[in-house]
Backbone:
């Protein structure tokens, strides 16, 4: 069959894939490598050292980074928790609730944060908070983050829920389990990989956000991305490379975790 | 309890609960996104307040400023104002070029991954998506670091004797396109991958049996079949590129000013103009929504067929 012409193979496509991955990873690899540079200059290589990581904790900018890291982590945890709970409830209603009026509109509403350009969301949110007179700061960032994290948490949870047959819950209900028991003891454990996946994605999305946060943060309030942006505006310094490396390691760790949780879930279902 | 579907929903007992279960999602997105977008549209028809913010009197000044010029003192007959149209046009052009580069690199990649053995596909896909989850700001900064005049790329090119003087990429259109391409490449690969994975390779075999060359088969058979995936990928790259702020701001210069920066500037300090910023946002959002609608209708038609 494949003798004359392998219809799946095109010359150059493999090379393009390698190029694609190279482009995606080289800038990150370069930043990681230079974050271990002992030299104060960005250009010259002065040997391997952890001095810029130490600088994150003891340097001039350390208090600023520490405050920003605290804000980022607490906001991401709270926003991911809230949006995951909201998204789980919504997914159960959308997937298990049968047909109801306004289902299409609800689906569009849940996905609205993905459709409106980020900068437009940022402008609209700022205008809204300013009109109702809510002081921009921690709370406004948190509200905005919960809102735009909902679809990111929703998608993996709904996808997982669609793959779970109703027969398990029906059997439980036939055996006189209450609706709450059937949810807590049957559906939730089966749904867990989707919920964890959704939580992790929402957490990263919140941790990563710059544009919306930058609009609604108010004066003096910083998250890690806005702190990094502020520093980079005055030129890239080695400590930023170290901070970037820490952040990208955390992101990659979370995504890897989410990937394996999903894989595990698929295997247990099969 | 006969049949499936609706009765299944009754059996699991969530049917009567849909309202309360959906209420938090409706409330959050309705109050903190839909309402703000509507309010922003109202703001675009208000009068500018000089300390930032607005005066609640109706005015078309924001749209007037976008489209028309009335001279330095505002007393000349109105002529078409090109400043902002040019910025929009440049954004469309930059986003379009970035989309094209993504397609050229993304299509072969998606095809290659979709034709791997089933076991390794997930891993390939994972490798494509990982960089997407790394902070966009950090990715953009890393590209800026790499491409600087005295950056590692130029060090390498000059060190190996390939070049005598550094490549000046930062602050050019090319840098912005590279940045957009780098930011959104996974968005191109994933939908095309999904389309190629569903592609029936018997079609290619039939074409090959009829003596079509590889490339003829690609052009005449494959591309029309996987087109919905390609269009989806193009939209997913083009839309965020159009309103991008970080890539033009960190990689470009004054000559690469795009819509995102124009909007951001209107809300910075007392120099800003909130109604004008709102109007530019409304125009951008309208453009994007029109594109999404056209896309949804095209997808709907393709689905029916």
Residues:
């Amino acid at each position: 069959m494949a003798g004359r012409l392998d219809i799946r193979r095109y010359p150059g496509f493999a090379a393009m894939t390698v190029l694609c991955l190279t482009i995606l990873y080289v800038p990150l690899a370069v930043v990681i490598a230079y974050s271990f540079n002992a030299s104060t200059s960005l250009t010259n290589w002065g040997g391997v050292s952890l001095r810029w990581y130490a600088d994150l904790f003891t340097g001039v900018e350390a208090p600023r980074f520490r405050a920003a890291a605290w804000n980022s982590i607490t906001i991401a945890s709270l926003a991911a928790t809230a949006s995951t709970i909201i998204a789980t409830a919504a997914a159960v209603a959308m997937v298990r609730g049968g047909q109801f009026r306004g289902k299409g509109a609800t689906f569009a509403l849940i996905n609205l944060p993905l459709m409106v350009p980020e900068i437009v969301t940022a402008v609209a949110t700022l205008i809204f908070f300013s009109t109702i007179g809510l002081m921009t700061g921690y709370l406004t960032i948190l509200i905005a983050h919960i809102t735009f994290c909902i679809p990111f948490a929703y998608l993996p949870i709904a996808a997982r829920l669609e793959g779970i047959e109703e027969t398990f819950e029906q059997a439980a209900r036939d055996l006189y389990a209450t609706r709450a028991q059937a949810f807590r003891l049957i559906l939730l454990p089966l749904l867990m990989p989707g919920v964890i996946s959704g939580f992790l994605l929402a957490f990263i999305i919140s941790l990563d956000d710059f544009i919306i946060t930058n609009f609604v943060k108010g004066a003096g309030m910083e998250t890690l991305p806005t702190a990094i942006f502020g520093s980079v505006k005055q030129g890239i310094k080695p400590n930023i490379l170290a901070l970037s490396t820490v952040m990208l390691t955390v992101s990659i760790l979370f995504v890897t975790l989410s990937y394996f949780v999903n894989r595990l879930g698929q295997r247990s279902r099969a | 309890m006969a049949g499936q579907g609706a009765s299944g929903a009754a059996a699991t007992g969530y049917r009567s609960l849909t309202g309360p279960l959906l209420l938090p999602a409706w409330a959050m997105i309705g109050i903190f996104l839909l309402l703000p977008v509507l309010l922003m549209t109202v703001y675009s028809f208000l009068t500018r307040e000089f300390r930032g913010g607005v005066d609640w009197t109706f005015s078309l000044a924001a749209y007037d400023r976008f489209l028309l010029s009335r001279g330095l003192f505002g007393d000349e007959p109105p002529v078409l104002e090109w400043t902002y149209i040019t910025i929009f046009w440049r954004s469309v052009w930059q986003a379009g070029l970035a989309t094209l580069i993504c397609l050229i690199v993304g299509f072969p990649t998606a095809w290659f991954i979709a034709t791997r053995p089933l076991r390794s596909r997930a891993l390939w896909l994972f490798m494509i998506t990982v960089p997407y989850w790394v902070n966009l700001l950090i990715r953009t900064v890393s590209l800026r670091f790499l491409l600087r005049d005295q950056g590692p790329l130029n060090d390498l090119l000059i060190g190996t004797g390939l070049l005598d003087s550094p490549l000046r990429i930062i602050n050019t259109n090319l840098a912005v396109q590279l940045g957009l391409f780098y930011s959104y490449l996974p968005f191109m690969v994933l939908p095309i991958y999904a389309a190629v994975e569903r592609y029936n390779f018997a079609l290619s075999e039939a074409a090959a049996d009829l003596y079509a060359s590889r490339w003829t088969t690609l052009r005449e058979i494959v591309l029309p079949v996987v087109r919905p995936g390609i269009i989806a990928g193009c939209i997913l790259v083009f839309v965020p590129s159009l309103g991008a702020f970080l890539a033009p701001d960190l990689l470009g210069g004054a000559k690469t000013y795009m819509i995102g920066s124009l909007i951001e500037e209107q809300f910075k300090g007392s120099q800003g103009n909130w109604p004008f910023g709102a109007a530019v946002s409304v125009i951008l959002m309208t453009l994007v929504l029109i594109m999404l609608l056209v896309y949804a209708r095209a997808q709907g038609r393709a689905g029916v067929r």
User: Anything to note?
Assistant: Chain A touches chain B through 94 residues (CB under 8 Å). The CA atoms of residues 5 and 147 of chain A lie 52 Å apart. Chain A has a mean pLDDT of 89.
